[in-house]
Amino acid sequence: MRPRRFGNARPQLSGGGDQSEEKGDQCQTLLLVGLGREGRLAIPLSLVARLEEIPLTQVEFAAGREVVQYRGQILPLIHLVQVLQTSRHDRNAVSDRLQVVVYSDGDRSVGLVVDRILDIVETRLEIKHAARRPGVLGSAVIQQRVTDLLDVPGLIRTADPSLFQAAAS
C-alpha cells in the first residue's frame, strides 16, 4: 500500500484579509498543524514538498530510527511532539495513520509527523515572541491563536544533525 496524499481538493486559504493587500503588506502562506491538545505550529508552505497520510503498517526501522519507503527512497520520520518536547499526543488524534509533512532539500527528504493538519493560511506574519528553544523561530498570532513558527532546518539539526550532513558536504 502506498502513502496517500491528503484530500483531493486544495484547502481553502483564510486569514490575510483585503486590508493587507490594499496596503501592500507582504503576506506569507503558511501550513498550520496541530500538536497535542492545543499546540499549533506554522510552517512556511514554501518548505512543504507534500502532505501525506501514511499507514502505521508501513513504518519500518533503520539505523535506530523510524522510516518509511517513499517514492523510491527511505524517508526518515521526525515526530515533532518528541523533538519539541511538547505535551503528549492528542489522544483523539491517535489512529492507524500518520499525518506527515514532507520537507525536501535537494534530493533528500524528511517526514515531519504531526498530530493534525489544520489549515493553509495567507497572512502577514509578525513574530511577537522570540523563541527560547531550537527548532522554533518564535510565536505569532494567527487566526486569533498563538502559534509557534517552525524553523524546519533548525528542527532537523536538533532531531538528527546527520540527516542532511552528507548533502552539505
The major beta sheet can be summarized as:
7 strands, mixed
Globular, elongated, flat, extended or rod-shaped: what is the shape? Answer: globular
Regions with little confidence, pLDDT below 50 for 5+ residues: 1-24
The top-level CATH class is Mainly Beta
What does the radius of gyration come to?
16 Å
Number of domains: 1
Percent helix, as a range, is: 10-25%
Task: Please identify the structural class as seen in this structure.
Answer: mainly beta
CATH level 4 superfamily: CheA-289, Domain 4
Query: What is the count of β-strands?
Result: 14
Q: Quote the beta fraction.
A: over 45%
What do we call the CATH topology?
OB fold (Dihydrolipoamide Acetyltransferase, E2P)
Second CATH tier, the architecture: Beta Barrel
Can you give the mean pLDDT? 80
Q: What count of helical segments does DSSP give?
A: 4
Please write the string of helix (H) and strand (E) elements. Answer: EEHEEEEEEHEEEEEEHH
